[in-house]
Amino acid sequence: MMIEATSPNTSSSDGMNRARSTELPQRVLIVDDEPEMAAVIEQALVRRGYLAQQQHSGDGAWDVLEREDYDVVITDINMRGMNGVELTERIVQNRHDIPVIVITAFGSVETATAVLRAGAYDFITKPFEIEQLVVAVERAIQNRRLREEVKRLREEVARAKPTSELLGESPAMRKVHETISRVAETDATVLVTGESGTGKELVARALHKRSKRKDGPFIAINCAAMPEALLESELFGHAKGAFTDAKTAKRGLFLEASHGTLFLDEIGEMPPGMQAKLLRALEERAVRPVGATSETPFDARILAATNRDLESLVESGRFREDLYYRVNVVQLALPPLRARGGDVLALAQQFITRYSEPMGKKVRGFSSAVGERLLAYAWPGNVRELQNCIERALALARFEELTVEDLPPKVRDFKPSFVVVATEDPTDLVTMEEVERRYIQRVMEAVGQNKTQAAKVLGFDRTTLYRKLERYKLGGATTPSAKD
What we know:
- The relative contact order is 0.08.
- This protein has 19 helices and 18 strands.
- It has helices at 35-46, 58-67, 84-94, 109-117, 130-159, 171-183, 200-209, 228-236, 253-256, 272-284, 310-315, 321-327, 343-355, 368-376, 382-396, 409-412, 432-446, 451-458, 462-471, and strands at 2-3, 27-31, 51-55, 72-76, 100-104, 122-125, 128-129, 190-193, 218-222, 237-238, 250-251, 261-265, 286-287, 296-297, 301-306, 330-333, 365-366, 401-402.
């Protein structure tokens, strides 16, 4: 509906509640020397779940603000006594944590400049739709909460060690921490899964540091980084004279990791021939060096990690099923960064703390606008991409806080995509088939194209999922492909 200075009525739905669901409703102070206008705004906000109160002068409003706390202030600009600009300036100087929305009947550039220069969060010109004001209130409250969260994270990270592992308190990460706590002290083989850049090696190191083997070595090897012959020699060692350059015997990593942990990263990339040899070593708890005639027992805990869908690789015959069950005694699925909510902000602050001093920068944190961009971005490269983003932003930073201009363009200009299945415009309505296609596409994006996880989310068996991917041309196939 359109609100004018003399309009006494409102037509909002009692069932609509746009206020954020919290234990206490958000408090809004409405300042307007026209009681009718203040009443219209108050009624509209109360019907949406806010706790709204009126004041009819700038001086009266300031007296209240000195005693009480509000989440946002809405003020008219033209009032007798202290006007809206003066009230805004006083709030910004003394209660800078409270965002101010200014309402004015004069929508000139000069007026906008004056209220924004005074420190107002936003301004709205009369006449206006009530939904326009409600959206502005929601954004102002969210902005305040975000600024408070950024401040809290800055203090929290400052107290913590800059290199603390696996930072994050999101529900997804709490599950990870719980699993680590439950299996760390055992010798069970753990398979860490997750997209590239999610921190799988950090999980492996955390398991080692909390285990009874923490005083032993932690040795990691990337199974995709070397040819099969070299990988075999690295893992199992070789006897003197086993091949042309083997002038001395060499202990393999299985033995080097004795009384500690051996981490097999990217195990899904291991060549088929090596898979059979690895399986025997794990089953016998002994290794035979290349060129040797006897086996040597080893005492190391085995951890493995992959960003591949091993179940699909097993189905297609590219990964041994018996080896899969041997390394997948306990599976620990690491969530992508986009599923970790506010952890993005905590990690960003950690990277600022870690890198600002070595880079010769005096950056303490980031603005709330930066926080909004970081939360909105999808982070396909996960924590590794966030780290790169913050390092780049620090290199360009000119102030004590990172600004939006410091962010990479793809983060700064990111537009999130959503699956829309309802609309009031009949021309936007789509068929159920199109709804299904969009939803499957969205789920595939959310799980990083992992068909096993997507099938579980969608409630399909894998054959059905492959058939639908092929039908909708979403990059799937009726049988697992090399990219699964």
